[in-house]
UniProtKB/TrEMBL annotation:
Keywords: Membrane, Transmembrane, Transmembrane helix. The chain crosses the membrane at residues 12-30, 104-124, 131-149, 155-175, 187-209, 215-232, 244-263, 269-286. This is Carboxylate/amino acid/amine transporter. GO terms for cellular component: membrane. Residues 16-147, 158-285 form the EamA domain. It comes from Hartmannibacter diazotrophicus.
Amino acid sequence: MTITAAAPRHRDAILLGILLMLVGDFMFALNDALGKWLVGSYGVGQVLFLRSLAGVAVILPMVLKAGPTSVLRLERPRLQVARAVLSTAEIVLFYAAVASLPLAYVMTIYLSAPIWVAALSPLMLGEAVGWRRWSAIVVGFGGVIVALQPSADTFSLATLLALAGSLAFALMIILSRQLRATPDVAIVFWQTVGALAAGIVLVPFDWAPASGRDIALMGLLGVVALLAHLLINRSLKLAPAAAVAPIQYTLLVWAVVFGYFIFGDVPQLSTAVGAAIIVAAGLFIFERQKKKGTLTKETVKTPPG
């Protein structure tokens, strides 16, 4: 009787986890679109500073509730610092790239991160990667090349920034997998503090007068991103990573929708084809990781941007 009753509750928990992941990814995509709109008028440092300031203000009550030791007693402090640096770098690089590139184009490049992770796992995590995943890695990077359509006319500094951001995002994921014992509140707190510190350094160089509305929108970036983090973390407590990992690719769908309706961006055929190849390769890698037992929540808990 108990087992029979538990099965529907388990299914309900998984469905709720999937729903929370969908909402969390939508909020991240909305956050990315709003960030692109703001960096069109303001410097990356200014946006990063006000976004992070609002994020710290929101997360501080959670830290106080959990107790200061939850963020002060950390495993492997050097890796914590490295992760915070990489997290900040990928945000800065994302904003710098979308300032002049279509949102869907940049998101396509960033969603190649799972392919980077699979390629770097043997070196950084000591994981064995078989020929099937190596084949998917090669195909996935082929998709990146198709999406980039590299030539003297199409390649730009912004494209290089997006590529560097996707690599920073992948390295952050790998470090997250090495810091599994760290409480979520500590991970998000130091990630936000790191971004705030970078914002403090950068803001004197590109501060511009802003309306009260735009200042509020920059602060909203931090609140939305933090709420999205919490939703995704909760999702991964309710549903297995294998069930929700593919959902992160809805970020690309939202990037196309927001890019078209807000910025008038129509994805090029090369971007669409490259994105399809990257998604197919990523899903295959996720499936192989699930079978090998190496797919973890850290792989999917922090969408880009």
